[in-house]
């Protein structure tokens, strides 16, 4: 993804309410040509609403939607050049796999020879070429979802929208399909907006993540940007693990119930306001010294590639630390000291 890519899809001041419920506050989002952008957020944060507004299933209350610079705000769904993939595969049960994939091309009146060639290519792309004659009921869930992907990619829509497409699959298959979707995205150069509530899925798939909370966008950035520079405590908490120390800014430090801690260098602060320091598990070490905090070990979590130590500070605030490879975890209940370098913490407003 180059920073200068053209804007494929523009959501400009778009909002939606259902009676008293604000489903989406006025929202601006730019999706770049060829990127895979995920809408990530908890249930009810407005992800599906934003997707439905983009494809035209829902009319916005305000704002406009542009694709390739053309206004689409009031264009009916079927006239928008937008492909949709949902969690339930919505395959036609009475059509074979090949006929399902060819359906969008037949609808568009493409010649038979072209349909045949493009269906074959699309099925090859999702590695189902050998199953073209089967019916959906003769396929596994993962295979059905791959047919749905092929049916969407086959007619090369300008923008592809996916709403939790892997939600019904088990974890192993979901991880496999994530890699498939990444490959399809790379091979086709499609612009994809992908909804998920699963932060790991978003981190694995995205060129950029649009993090949503309470019907609005919380932060947009690359996975690394959001992980390393969360702008809010919500962003820090939702993506990855972190220790969040809440307090008040006083005399160039953050005053918390567990002590006063140094601020990262070069941060602009307003004295006497509420803020939090965010520290990622790999930035905390079991050391004493300056900028350290006393804690009690509450749990050891063995996660295969790493072992995490869950701690509790004197105030009851939880903390999480990644043990160095090969280190023996201290016993549950042990009193320890956790330390970090001030430049490795991120200060967020509260
Ligand atoms: P998400 O996809 O992030 O889980 P949604 O966009 O589906 O969230 O919903 C956002 C909010 O709008 C929720 O509070 C939801 O209950 C409400 N909402 C969504 N669709 C409707 C609808 N058709 N009628 C009434 N309320 C709705
Ligand atoms: Mg949803």
Report what the structure shows.
The chain is an alpha+beta fold. The chain is 24% helix and 34% strand. The chain is built from 8 helices and 19 strands. The model has no long low-confidence stretch (mean pLDDT 94). The structure holds adenosine-5'-diphosphate (ADP) and magnesium ion. Magnesium ion binds at residues 47-48.
Work out the radius of gyration.
24 Å
Large-scale geometry: elongated
Q: Please tally the β strands and state the result.
A: 19
Low-confidence region ranges:
none
Query: How far apart lie the N and C ends?
Result: 32 Å
What topology, given as strand order, has the largest sheet?
6-7-8-3-9-10
The largest sheet is: 6 strands, mixed
How many H/I helices?
8
Order of helices and strands: EEEHEEEHHHEHEHEEHHEEEEEEEEE
Into which percent range does the helicity of residues fall? 10-25%
Query: Helix/strand-derived class?
Result: alpha+beta
List all distinct small molecules, including ions and cofactors, that are bound in this structure. Answer: adenosine-5'-diphosphate, magnesium ion
What is the typical, i.e. mean, pLDDT?
A: 94
Task: Summarize it.
This protein is α+β, with helices and mostly antiparallel strands. The chain contains eight helices and 19 strands. The protein has helices at residues 47-55, 97-107, 112-125, 141-153, 171-188, 199-205, 223-228, 233-238; strands at residues 7-18, 21-32, 36-40, 62-67, 70-71, 82-85, 159-163, 191-196, 208-213, 216-221, 243-250, 253-256, 259-262, 274-279, 292-302, 307-313, 318-322, 335-339, 345-349.
